[in-house]
């Protein structure tokens, strides 16, 4: 009889320990089968499914793409005269491989340095030290002197050793040849992976080119390429308008690197070169460099031949530009005067024929070209604003084309000094003036009274301005802005400013009088040019521009194409023909009127074309001395030419009239260089 215990064991589970072994083996075998399946799947993906992907990844270790600069676009004037071109020279370049160590670059730099000498003044102390400790013997000597553990492959050692060398540089001298190699090393380390930097760009000799070409297999990444620099066949004066190129600026390096630039690339850094960088730069040539992993030899293959930069065709007439520059320089007065500025443009298209700026150091009398000052330097402009002020009065309905007579008289406001027109300071020449006659004699009194009317007041001697709302400033400024004054013109140059607007608080309400005749807010010369163009063309504000067209280079034998810059209208004045004629008649009287107080002088009327104009004089102070800004705008109605000139800080009492004389001389040159008198006169009569 079996014991109860044995009976219970037999019933429990129905198996002995021996019978459970095959089950465990089955589980183990199952795991093994799953693992083998996973390995087989991985082998399949590596060798079959993703074969091309992994092959490309392997190839990338020995193949890289090198980008080479192409010719930058040229710049020509409206007659086709070449203003900016390119000079190509051989250069020694380095394209940093995708995976390279400092030790490998150190070796290459030393090899290159055997045959190439470069300028070393820009070698930094940090790179001097980094180069120094890459030699094992020198590194051990540094470790011993610094009292640090010699461990050349660690970041800690490199950091400590470099700092010690920098702090004790005189104790660790390099020979001239080693300094040369260190500078080459610095240029190489500054490159990003697969980017190209210039090792040497100037005075590369035939011997250096030959030496590098014969030894490229021992200098991975080093090659001979082309380096382009700007040339100025028509003279360097044009740089002050067109601008220059230079190395990628630090403040925009990240942005430009993300766009495919290299740190060593030359880019437009000012004016037109900067504004049209995208068009001028072209598309880099791409060369595939393959390195044999066994021999180290490299081969190259062009995968994209590149595309030269587009050419800029300017509206600028370089002959007129040179002539206007001479005129402005000759008319800048001596003494306190700080310069002269002028813009000549087409009122119908906005194309600029000439834009000249000349700064004057009034302590030495030295003159410096600064054409960009026309867009980035603001000045009170004086009475040239009066056509816009009178237009605003007409459009506000406080005067009409047929009812616009006011009496010129000194304006006496309670608590302030008397303000008057230049010819009627004491009231002995009080006279009735129409709006056109007010322009002829440049009546301050007329526009001050007009301002008061727009503010809901009529002038009376000794009146208070307490009832004049500060919104009058906005009314006047909006009127000026219709013509382009006080707002950016949109010219195709970087750095344009809009000028400064004075305070408009209730305590400043008296300055509304000064605002009405142009002695409060400041404006730029290009705004003055857009303003006179708007008057000249009948009332539409055109965006001024220097680039007339962009010539796109052809690809694969295709012809170049021309992209014309369209005329862009930014707004309209909105006046009636009768209102416009009030302004045109008044500005014609400035240059051709018979009043004893006519402000245009007698010179302008002798021109063979019927030029209308408005002059301006604004009181300023220069170095504590009373001075004036002398300005002028001029045009032939409906024609293709308008002119604006500004001479700031002219000594008070100066009788040279630089604004009028330069205007006359500029129109003489316009008739020689741009338009003939018959065309201009015909347009005026149309």
UniProtKB/TrEMBL annotation:
Location of the Penicillin-binding protein transpeptidase domain: 340-654
Listed GO MF terms: penicillin binding; peptidoglycan L,D-transpeptidase activity
Protein localization: Cell membrane
Key words, A-Z: Cell membrane, Cell shape, Cell wall biogenesis/degradation, Membrane, Peptidoglycan synthesis, Transmembrane, Transmembrane helix
Pfam families: PBP_dimer (PF03717), Transpeptidase (PF00905)
GO cellular component: plasma membrane
Cited Gene3D superfamilies: DD-peptidase/beta-lactamase superfamily, Penicillin-binding protein 2a (Domain 2), Penicillin-binding protein, N-terminal non-catalytic domain, head sub-domain
Xref: InterPro entries: Beta-lactam/transpept, Beta-lactam/transpept-like, PBP_dimer, PBP_dimer_sf, PCN-bd_Tpept
Record flagged with keyword Cell wall biogenesis/degradation: yes
Residue intervals passing through the bilayer: 21-41
Domain Penicillin-binding protein dimerisation per the UniProt entry, residue ranges: 69-293
Any single GO BP term: peptidoglycan biosynthetic process
Membrane topology term: Single-pass membrane protein
Family: Belongs to the transpeptidase family.
Designated name of the protein: Penicillin-binding protein 2
Taxonomic lineage of the native organism: Bacteria, Bacillati, Bacillota, Bacilli, Lactobacillales
